[in-house]
């Protein structure tokens, strides 16, 4: 039995960030070239099997298909999946690996696969503006790219994404760096929500309600790794240290999470590890965002990741509740000498002078057909690229939210800094009525989508491209 709440739109109850804690102090990297093997991952149902004997090539089969899924609430619903599991299997690789994905589409809609966050060629990025979508009922495509950066990324369709992601087409990408410390365990935790129509107990129809058009689709059920109430997911011993890789794959809801029973610090963002890990009480993940955290187990027998959401109670009042999202039971002998986590020192990036400044303003207008149109700089569904830059440029972009709720802005194929925060990102939240300044490192040439990651907003116009001309 799960307690039923009506989940209301989430407010941001705590800022992200916090005070920088001490960074890694440059531990010596292990010399064991030969001995390295990818750490086992706990969490997602499976890892894509590498069919290629070359240790630097990862060759996998990925199939989007119709699948009957049980989200753990006792109902089997017709949904979609990659390779029959939800969330899809993890694409696991090492930085620098060549990836070959033999993709097949057995769903009823055309689709593409976008490798969110990876700085690869635009020809392989899954943009339907570049790639002819892979046709329904048997179309195939081979994605080939080399992974340039370690970190936690994800993959998903870029055709009707508001429907295809909600129905189950979501997977994670874990890119290891063998210089990283070895943990007692690594966990992948995909936070999501889903909208179930109480009348039918099936996934609700798309773009039907006013709130969905305006706020994006907020689910009435929270999911972790594809399950409504995952319960206790694992065991650990006092003194162990783990790396948790968090992703928010919802359509619209920003996840606000905290951890009880253990201490943690943030060691990675969208673009891989941080030079200076930081501590915080609450972590806010807009859709598309990833954080890697280092979790230190202590005496508590239960460690719980909690999602803070606003909900209507039976009396109709809006209250903040903490929903258990992921639990690990802790027991047994304490580790006699807990491992010391030493992150090798990361060199400071070369300082980059801003060469150009641009603005993107987000707003909405009424639309006779769809009800609402979401726009960037006054245009919905840009057909021409909004800006053209040159490879190597550093561009300050001011993102202004002139209308509506928050907009998690995502730029394909590049990383950016967010003013006032450590680390690099590919997604940033722009709150209602606010402006956020980012500094984009435009090092990857190509034509790149830039859009709101509230998938309903993107489908209803909040989508453009930028061009980065090769130098
Ligand atoms: Cu995660 Cu354009 O997407
Ligand atoms: Cu938006």
What would your notes on this structure say?
The N and C termini lie far apart (59 Å). Strand 12 and strand 13 form a beta hairpin. With 471 residues, the protein is mainly beta. The longest helix has 6 residues. It has three helices and 34 strands. The N terminus is likely disordered. Strands 2, 11, 14, 16, 18, 19 and 21 form a seven-stranded mixed beta sheet that branches. Helices cover 4% and strands 46% of the residues. The site of CU-O-CU linkage (C2O) has 10 residues, from strand 7 and strand 33.
Summarize the structure.
It is built from three helices and 34 strands. It has 471 residues and is mainly beta.
List the helices and strands and how they pair.
Layout: E1 6-7, E2 41-42, E3 57-70, E4 76-82, E5 88-94, E6 98-105, E7 114-116, E8 139-146, E9 151-156, H1 161-166, E10 171-176, E11 185-194, E12 196-197, E13 202-203, H2 210-215, E14 221-224, E15 232-236, E16 241-248, E17 255-260, E18 262-269, E19 272-278, E20 283-285, E21 290-297, E22 302-312, E23 318-330, E24 356-367, E25 371-376, E26 387-390, E27 393-401, E28 407-411, E29 415-418, E30 424-425, E31 427-430, E32 435-442, E33 446-452, H3 455-459, E34 463-469
Parallel strand pairs: 2-11, 3-6, 5-10, 11-16, 15-23, 24-27, 26-34
Antiparallel strand pairs: 1-22, 3-4, 6-8, 7-9, 9-10, 11-14, 12-13, 16-21, 17-20, 17-22, 18-19, 18-21, 22-23, 24-25, 27-32, 28-31, 28-33, 29-30, 29-32, 33-34
Bound molecules: CU-O-CU linkage and copper (II) ion.
